[in-house]
């Protein structure tokens, strides 16, 4: 059985981003930048007032001074008047600082009498002025390639004058459930029928992470049905199959793939849940074969499929599984040769530094209700010794 870290590295080294496309700024949130974004203009483009008030010369802005108001300037309407000694211009937030002025006296510090403004407090040079390019200058790099765009990034790109952004194409990922016992929710259920929870769960995870998912028809436990569905891989960026990759007489996924040319890289992982995991390529399309039990399918999707998807999206992905520290909330037994991923709840620790992770006593890989109640997976190395409650551990948070 292959080590988890080795299997993860071997999957990722076989993948590359799907390519690029140009999308409107309004549709770019959540996408991954394929090219850096540079500012088309400075922000602000000119020096502007940060407050409502009066633009004047700092040398005139003394307590008790009386200045003559020579113009009024709202935002978007620059003044053609140059401020002279003893003068000021009424202006509003966002208005361009007039020529000759080097400070803004906020309106709270002014008593206005007709065309004159009496200062009740002094103002310093540069006060309440947002200088041209204070945020960024023209041609500054605003966003690096490889960044997944959030709402703040969209705002920054808009401030830099961008209407379109070049992003990585959203990967098209096929989800293929296999098995004669698998039925769709809502279909008439035979006594031994199992609703297809794993496909919907994995598809939801990958959609959340940025994929365009295609739910393929369920493949039945015969070579014709399996090979027919696997041939759909040619139109996809990645195919994820669920079930049928173990060693039973009706586990025909690997033979069916071999018949149509799969180049298998590995099969079987030293992890629990998720031992019967397969990876290979059918032509140029990577295929990850997940276990049929829904919890195992979800855990393997978090550990292997999600980083594969991120690589296809152009995100930087490390080969090492990213974990964080926690404190065990209960005793755990010694581990065997497989790396364990124990479903656990999280709670604040008394010290508040790291959370307390308490694994469930039941870890059956078909129990979805326990998975739903979990917030994290406690990761235990192969042959890890027994540990007491209160000792440190490593966790992966569940999405």
TrEMBL record:
TM region(s), chain numbering: none
Keyword Transferase: yes
Keyword flag Nucleotide-binding: no
EC number: 2.10.1.1
Biological or metabolic pathway of the protein: Cofactor biosynthesis; molybdopterin biosynthesis
GO cellular component: cytosol
Reactions listed under catalytic activity: adenylyl-molybdopterin + molybdate = Mo-molybdopterin + AMP + H(+)
Record-linked PROSITE patterns: MOCF_BIOSYNTHESIS_2 (PS01079)
Gene Ontology molecular functions: metal ion binding; molybdopterin molybdotransferase activity
GO biological process, alphabetically ordered: Mo-molybdopterin cofactor biosynthetic process
Keywords tagged on the record: Magnesium, Metal-binding, Molybdenum, Molybdenum cofactor biosynthesis, Transferase
Cofactor(s) required, per the database record: Mg(2+)
Family the entry assigns: Belongs to the MoeA family.
Record function comment: Catalyzes the insertion of molybdate into adenylated molybdopterin with the concomitant release of AMP.
Protein name: Molybdopterin molybdenumtransferase
Organism: Acetobacter pomorum
